Amino acid sequence: MFDLFRGLATGRITICLTALAALWLSTQGGPAGAAQIQLQPIPVRVTIGEVLAFRDAATRHLNYLPGQVLVKFKNGTSRAAQQRALMALRSRPALDDLKWIGSVAIVTDAGQPDAPVLAAQLREQPEVAYAEPNYLYRTTSTPNDPSFTSRQWNLQALDLPRTWDISPGGSNSLIVAVVDSGVTTATSPIPFRTWNGSDFVDIAIPFAVNPDLPASRLVSPQDFGFLGGSTVLDTEGHGTHVASTIGEETNNGIAEAGIAYGVRIMPVKVCVSYWDVQFAGSALGIPGFAPPDSGGCLNSDVAQGIRYAADNGAKVINLSLGGPSPSQTVQDALLYAVSKGAFVAVAAGNDYDDDNPTEYPAAFASSIDGVMAVGAVGRSLRHAYYSSSGPYVEIAAPGGDEEEAGTQGGIWQSTIFQPDSDPELVLFPRFDRYAETPFQGTSMASPHVAGIAALIMSRLGASGTPAVVERVIKATARACDSIDCDPATPGVGKSGRNDLFGAGLIQPRAALLGFGFAR
Amino acid sequence: MSIWRSLVLGCSLLVIVNSTAVAQTPTSTLRVTKDMSVIWRLGFSAPATVVRAGTQLDVVGRQGNWYEVIVPASGTTTPGMHGLIAANQVELIGGRVPPNLAPRPRSPSSSAGNGRDRGVARAVPASEHRAHARGFGEIGYGWMQAHQTFRAVFDQGAVTWWGAGAEYGSRTGGFVQGAFRRFHGTGERVFVFDDEVTKTGIGDTVTITPVDFTIGYRSTRGHGATYVGAGFGRYFYTETFDFADAGDKVKLRLTSYHVMAGYERRLSAWIATAFEVQYTHVPDALSGNVAEAFKESNMGGVEVRIRVAVGR
Question: What are phi and psi of A219, to 5 degrees?
């Protein structure tokens, strides 16, 4: 299974004490423990085959969903010809039974779980423009030890207080979509079926809206995961953390600050967590526990989420997810979003010290004006040890670096209290408690850029097109020679763009101020 | 300020200056040294009067070897009437030697061939230099060399300058001049990508104060003079904007180089006007997104201006 949480082992050690406290709470008649009553579990929209495929992918460490591919037929191909192409597959799926994302079809063939082989079979058909496995992208962050000390060094480093003098939190009419693991919109417990170690049990899982990102700030939520519909549940905390960086309430005396605290957030759930897989499996009668690393962001859901956000008024989209596999379907969705006037920030990836593979969809960014791949710096404003590099990295922002400064070097934002839902510690999770939590990763760097893009768009109005926003950010970035980006690699990053930082460290105040006559 | 407002103001200044010239008053006093000296009517058409030695006369101006004076009242003259008396028949007893004036237009009757009339005309040299010192004020309209950058921020490619200075001229025609000018304007901060200007809505205020020194040569002919010069200077540049902190303000000291040429018209002994053209070169002054987008770095440009000088 693709590593979901980088450095999880070190994180586990540090969260151990607080996790034990949470476990004690759950065994003392806490909400989860008390909820084992007769309930009708919420239905899921996925099939047993899909849930099993997720579990299979986790078990076999696959970066795609077994037996599923995304297919785009060539323009002008008739329905009959499309059906003929599908007949090349062993299962011979009917065209009318396929799910569609724009012009891309999701094809499932239970008889051929090897998705790359399936895709290759379809690519041989003359009617097919492209066919690719339905890859699983991963969220790109690492949760660290919770702390209640306010340590938003990242916002200080970017001079946000003075930036807010110019654009106080951005415009309320501007929508930023967080295409991620979701931001919870439910305000009451929701019944789920799960496994207690020996049998299925139906329990009411507590959910609550983040008090520092109230429901009034959330707009047009949509779940493209297992439940579907307009109720979004973050059962992991990643999406909530990202959303908090973008727009957590500010100047309210609660928790931390967000960059664009005046904009509205569109929660678009495209990533499923361990708990989503576990609940769905139990609801469908699959006994036992899902593998710990179950979950991910299916490319078909990512593409749908991007298109949904663009179609529903989002002018900024954050994608804190990625993987080593390119997806034409996701690239098409990015192009579609930009064509609809949405700027997209994408995490560059967290695999710098793991052979530094090219990461997608970040690698698409350099070829699309209005989509930016974001690398990460730590508290010292030097390259974060994990931040992937390559010619596609276009900008750098704080993402935290625990190797450099421990949890003090993480990005602190309000999100779900992590020990409440750690699958290695609890049987029955709860998602109604929030805490300031340090995460690190390019997942954390990307929402900095998304939030600042929202401030820029709020300031520029209609002239703030995605391409202009990207150019503004690049033109005002702090070049690496002034932040000693890469002291370990002499000669790198001393001027102009480089593969670690792109144009340099983002400078929100300069990006809002623009330029005068002489300077 | 628009160019039209500037021109109207400049023209108004010229009218005022001309009016002042018309209402000129005597500046020196002469005493007649030879008895029965003749004061001629202007144009030497006829004697105006005859004066005794010791008579004091108010001087209006000088035309070569003749002084233009106010003719003493008599039965044949009118009050305030001007006439001409030979310079060798008088001595200066008060004030300075008046400036040399071109001959006044002669009456049709005198143009028939009066020998003394022709003599006066010959007495005025084709080019005559005098040492002088004077101050001046000026208003100008300049086209910035970085006109695209300037237009992006200020919505116009040219600026109105105000200025003042002082000049000293030698008898050889050479002169030195020191002057300062000033531009102050508020535009809007912008981004420029592919020549497309994106406004930020944030005000940007610029003050440019060039101080320059010029060495030149002047060729005088009658009441007019043409001149050319060249020199160097310093541009004192400040720029600030809405939301700026103290550290944000831009303060620059830039070296400038210039060449200039002009034509001056003397309106009276003390006052002259001039039309001047100057090209200024201020290299490596501009940087940042806007100037780089337009590949402009020179803050100089071409300026035309109207000058009013006071002094002798």
Answer: -140, 140
